[in-house]
Design goal:
Layout: E1 2-3, H1 16-24, H2 31-44, H3 60-72, E2 78-82, H4 90-105, E3 109-113, H5 117-123, E4 126-131, E5 134-140, H6 141-144, H7 148-153, H8 160-170, H9 182-201
């Protein structure tokens, strides 16, 4: 399944409910099963209150969510997202992040086309970086996005956590390899400053 960058190129039905119904109608559901699946999808993607609205009256973020729902309801084995975070607020990005993690844990193949390096560093384990139609790097996301030469070729800027990690290292602080993840950086800094405070209170700092 492919989720387009611009949902207006993907949506066409008269109502939000019909958009989901069209995606499901060839999956051999009984009428009852079909209606149940439609309702489950609308609930999961927080679209129930819009079910009788035309998709083209929704906000950009809501359209994107509907486009994703219309693909996900078919439970495809391979899912391609084209710039999934564009037009999404913080809540929308978090929803997409959790959805990607859920599908990945189910063994689905997830391909994400994105320029959102902050989203990539925190959610995508492997990156294939392209420039001018050519592959210029392929490997662990944190390794690729920490190499200035590669980023310059791809006209990208280092993620904030990579910049912070380099600053700490340049300041003489030993930083573990996995702190490019937000949760790990928070945990590391918490432990680091707690240790410094304990040393200071003990009169050894």
């Amino acid at each position: 399944g492919i989720v387009f960058q611009n949902p207006d190129l993907q949506l066409f039905a008269n109502t939000v409910e019909d958009e989901i119904r069209f995606s499901l109608k060839n999956l051999n559901f009984t009428k009852t099963e079909l209606e149940n699946q439609i309702n489950l999808t609308l609930e999961k993607f927080k679209l129930k209150k819009f079910q009788n609205r035309t998709p083209f009256t929704l906000s950009g973020g809501e359209k994107k969510r509907l486009a994703i729902a219309s693909i996900m309801c078919r439970n495809p084995e391979i899912i391609v997202f084209d710039e999934p975070t564009i037009g999404q607020d913080a809540e929308g990005v978090e929803f997409i992040r959790n959805l990607i993690k859920e599908k990945h844990s189910e063994g689905k193949t997830i391909i994400i086309v994105t320029h959102d390096i902050e989203f990539a560093i925190d959610n995508i384990p492997r990156t294939i970086l392209m420039a001018d139609g050519l592959i210029i790097a392929d490997g662990p996301t944190n390794k690729i996005l920490s190499q200035d030469q590669i980023l310059n070729i791809g006209s990208l800027i280092s993620p904030q956590l990579i910049i912070l990690s380099k600053f700490l290292i340049d300041s003489g602080i030993k930083v573990p390899d996995d702190v490019y993840l937000k949760e790990n950086m928070i945990q590391f800094l918490g432990s680091f400053f707690k240790e410094k405070m304990e040393i200071s209170e003990g009169g050894k700092f």
